[in-house]
Design a protein that fits this description.
N-reg_PII/ATP_PRibTrfase_C; four-stranded antiparallel sheet; N-reg_PII-like_a/b; two-stranded antiparallel ribbon; single chain; 6 strands; Alpha-Beta Plaits
Length: 96
Amino acid sequence: MKGMKKIEIIVESIYIKRVLDLFAKKEITGYTIIRDIEGCGGHGLKTADEVTDVGSNSYIFTVCEDEKFKNMIEDVRSFIKRHGGKCIITDVMLLQ
């Protein structure tokens, strides 16, 4: 098993491509996207029944090596500060 970081990002769906561009820039090529999630946070209830991507949230997660994580963390922090959203980082073990 190998120690890695799991990065979970919840953003407005209109920003998915920007997050994926950030991943690509840092050579993170594997990820999962779950569209139209719903929940309640600091901005109130977000429902999953939006007709367009405007106002709906999506969940993106990836697992990467510590070095790649360290190279991208400030970019993710800037992104969240500029566009909103949440980023959760967890130490994980990857079974290969």
